[in-house]
Write a structure and sequence with these properties.
five-stranded mixed beta sheet, BirA Bifunctional Protein, domain 2, eight-stranded mixed beta sheet, 16 helices, 43% helix, 2 domains, elongated, alpha+beta, Rossmann fold
């Protein structure tokens, strides 16, 4: 029996160790997420609406690989960009040449490569594509910034005109209205190869004279790509005195940007000119834009894009103009979720402690619903802790608790789950009190 007991203990210990190892192996990686239920549905809504808008504008779908040669991003995004310097997932393939490959951090370079390889740049330059799928960047994770995220993007080739830039922003506005979102449009012009060198030199000289005020990253960027100084999130206050692109635009670039502004105004799309908007990628020229949401915190850019007229040629193709944008699907879904919660109003859970409280709880729940509040009546056969977990799971803002003691005294315990506080209110006054208090969340 002793041998059997020791054997059992060894087997039990091994089983426990295996269970712990299995738990460690299946833990979700930092910076990655699962979209389940309502959140998956919202992301799907964004993708479906974006696809519908793109197809109404006569875009065709393109599907590109997740894996590309690393040179594609080095030559397009720029070796000084954060994407290339810090964020790419790259590794050597096991082929004979030990090709260095990267998981795609963005969609535009892959679409441009596919466009060139298909021969469109010479045989039929004017093309309109849309794509969607996962992207990968090894960033510091936070709300709205993930290491795997989904993008929906569009690219237009062979259209150098300002009307095409405006059309892209009009598309975003159509999507915004379809989803019922309030977004802010920010635009800027980065100039072109004729006028940007003068702006670059002015920014370089400014950076050198303010070197001691700039962060370490900006020290490294200054000589290689001084435009990146304006994209720095650390030196925002310092760069407020730096030169802006608008001061150095040549007449053709100024006229191009003016037409974009006129077309947006004619379409009834409010916008602001943000002279510090340069984007973090090297290939942009002339029009650049971001669309931001006030609903989702510091990572608030939900759409970004602009013109990249030299990129096709830089990757080995003909000198064909290009422009496009990408939507952060999860970020736009977050904005949609926040908007829906505000429109739906606060949720209320009525907790009946015991069957005797159910009739009064039913009447109270009906009164709250008549006042326009989303209300659920919980099971009277569960304990208070379990019912509070249910309220938290539902995302409720209020829990109204009625037990035998409350029935005898004609009161209700009102627990504000957002403020983590509770007070006792007369039964006859509780519905109006919750309705009035809830107005602050609407």
């Amino acid at each position: 029996m002793l041998i059997r007991r020791e054997s059992f203990q060894i087997v039990s210990a091994q089983a426990q160790l295996n269970a712990e190892n299995r738990k460690a192996l299946i833990t979700r990686l930092r910076g990655f997420q699962d979209l389940i239920g309502a959140r998956a549905h919202l992301a799907g809504r964004v993708e479906q609406a974006a696809r519908r808008v793109a197809e109404l504008h006569n875009f065709s779908e393109i599907r590109i690989p997740l894996l590309e040669r690393i040179e594609l991003y080095q030559r397009s995004s720029g070796e000084t960009s954060d994407v290339v310097e810090k964020q790419m997932y790259s590794f050597s393939d096991r082929d004979e040449a030990e090709t260095v490959v990267a998981l795609r951090p963005e969609g535009t370079p892959g679409v441009v490569r596919a466009y060139i390889e298909a021969g469109f740049d010479r045989s039929d330059p004017e093309q309109r594509f849309y794509y969607f799928g996962p992207m990968f960047r090894r960033e510091r994770p936070q709300k709205g910034r993930l290491r795997q995220f989904s993008q929906f993007g569009v690219e237009v080739f062979g259209r150098p005109d300002a009307a095409c830039d405006a059309e892209l922003l009009i598309m975003v506005d159509e999507l915004r209205r379809e989803l019922g979102l309030e977004l802010q449009f920010q635009i800027n012009s980065l100039g072109d190869s004729r006028c940007r060198p003068a702006f670059r030199d002015a920014l370089l000289n400014w950076g050198r004279s303010n070197l001691d005020r700039l962060c370490r990253d900006c020290h490294e960027r200054l000589e290689r790509n001084p435009l990146r100084l304006l994209d720095c999130k650390i030196d925002v206050e310092v760069t407020a005195s730096a030169p802006t692109t608008g001061e150095y635009l040549c007449d053709p670039c100024r006229d191009h940007f003016s037409i974009v502004e006129q077309l947006l105004t004619a379409s009834g799309i409010p916008y602001v000119v943000n002279p510090r908007l340069v984007r973090g990628l090297d290939y942009y020229t002339r029009t650049a834009f971001e669309v931001v949401s006030s609903e989702i915190g510091s990572q608030n850019a939900v759409v970004a894009g602009g013109r990249y007229d030299g990129l096709v040629q830089a990757l080995g193709g003909a000198p064909v103009a290009g422009t496009g944008f990408a939507i952060g699907v999860e970020r736009l879904a977050l904005a949609l979720e926040a908007t829906q919660l505000r429109e739906e109003g606060p949720k209320v859970v009525v907790v009946a402690l015991g069957n005797a409280a159910v009739p009064q709880a039913n009447r109270l729940a009906a009164d709250l619903r008549q006042r326009g509040l989303r209300t659920e009546l919980t099971s009277p056969e569960r304990g208070l802790k379990s019912l509070m977990r249910r309220a938290d799971k539902l995302g409720a803002q209020y829990a109204l608790i009625i037990g035998e003691n409350e029935l005898e005294r004609g009161v209700v315990q009102v627990r504000d789950l957002r403020k983590s506080c509770q007070r006792e209110i007369a039964l006859s006054e509780v519905a109006e009190h919750v309705k009035t208090d809830a107005a602050q969340y609407l």
